[in-house]
Amino acid sequence: MKESDVAFGAYTDYGKLRAAIVGSAEGLALPPYNPTLHHYNDEVRSALKATGGKALDIRQAMPQRWERTVAQLDNLAELYRSYGVEVYRPRPYTKEERQYLSELQPGSSLLYPADPVYTVGKHYIELNIRRAYRRKEIFPLRDLVMPLLGTDSETHHAVMPAPCPYQPSSGGPGPYLEGGDIICYRDYLFVGESDIATNRAGTNWLADYIRPFGYQVYPVPMKGQILHLLGAMVLIREGLLLLFRDELACDLPPPLAQWDVIELTEAEAKAYATVGVSLDDSRYIIPAGLDRVCNELVKHGVEPIEIEYDAVSYWGGCVSCSTHAIAREP
Questions:
Q1: What is the CATH number of domain 3-222+319-328?
Q2: Are 312 and 111 in contact (CB under 8 A)?
Q3: SS3 for 133?
Q4: I need a surface site. Which of 118, 139, 213, 276 has the fewest CB within 10 A?
């Protein structure tokens, strides 16, 4: 598929996937520890505490884990290609990009391209992640997407206003808005809010921007034990969702209130049951090892496609985090 053949735009999270960006482990360096990084596991937190205030270069510090991470990202890309999905991969950072906002928080990552940007309809939106070390991710992704935007006169490229500088980098007023907190259903957007990712200022900015184009935004307050809304809920197909209800500090938004729900345990949520990716409304890529959830999906007419993803999820995200859908059918 040529770039000009990709019909840029994503309309519902389970529309047929046509093209996606898959993350990369190149240059992965995690920041020095601070208390807002509690979503990392115990081993990672201990390693970050021992860096003496410097970023932890994962390829040097944990070479076997890094190599497995590379292999699993490559496997995901090949899985998508086997189903006819066009796959893009981000380039490495430049030297200058690596230094971007390092005074606020050193480090760099390209693992999870679903977080720093979001595509809804024909709108490509560059967002604000709370953790400053991840805000540089927009630059390699921009290089991939701009040629696609340029071939379609109906596309929009929006950039959030920069968050106020603040120490620690995850504090302050923001506005903060992260892709993992946004779920799309037709012309509705559900936005998770917590003290560790998206805040109300970010939700309000999105609502102000997207409302004139016919979208309605619903805030979804969360308790903050799980990083993103997609860690607690995912729409599988029309009328069916997976949900770890205990993480929500509210009822389901009205457009979803009558849907069938496959209820998840805390263990299943923390094993990333909701952080898979739908190829379409009858096939769902899910991390391996969630047998009960897979059986429930089958009962509801959905084929679970299991993938070994423990090396990538070790760093705090899973399949949907490392996948940014840039072309989905309505």
A1: 3.75.10.10
A2: yes
A3: helix
A4: 213
